[in-house]
Specification:
single chain, 251 residues, alpha+beta, YacF-like, 2 domains, 8 strands
Amino acid sequence: MITYEYPFNERVRTYLRLEQLFDRVFSLIEDTEVIEHHFALTTLFEIMDVGARADLKSDVMKDLERQKHAMISYRGNPAIAAEALEEVIERLQLCFDGLNAVPGRAGQTLTDIDWLMGVRSRAAIPGGTCEFDLPAYFAWKHLPAARRQQDLRNWIHTLRPLAASIRLLLNLLRQSGAAQKVSVVGGQYQQSLQQGKTSQLVRVALDRQAELIPEISGNRLVLSIRLMRMGEDARLRASGEDATLEITLCA
């Protein structure tokens, strides 16, 4: 199965973007090739761009606090394992404390590193990191792999609390929904969303063998899915086929 996710609000959209960027940068850092470390740096700059929003850190901390209070309300519920519940509450508190200890906006401390900001400004220009533009960066790329990895780990360190917080919040959000199988007739599906319960994310799972691509749109009132197929000319076209999907609405 291939699972596609579609956010219903801008906050969750930002979380999903950051989750993807953090997964990429942590994976690239573990590699030893120069090209991988170059893309680790450019990904770090993307994270800084997304994290530059003044209210991002505040939004994440509010969500952590909201989730913690929601979990605390489940204490004493016989249907919930007490040990697992306390573990989640502790993780939420640790993420909150870790993020609260980071000064300023996400990545703000990195802006004080002149060398890094010099690379950032040139990386935005196509081909702008050539050795004649950035000889110091060219020299850095010739350092031993272990030294480059340590530098990258040092630079990403202040962003780790944000990465851990977003990963935890998204995992809890994904676990909040229950998957339901639905039939799609003629490649089109529409579902009215439950009133009084605001979904923040929808997850749509399809059989990978079907080679269908869902085009998802929606808001707090309705969810629409149109199934597409990639043609031989590399263009997406409406499939018009019947299919079965698994849809999970997460609130």
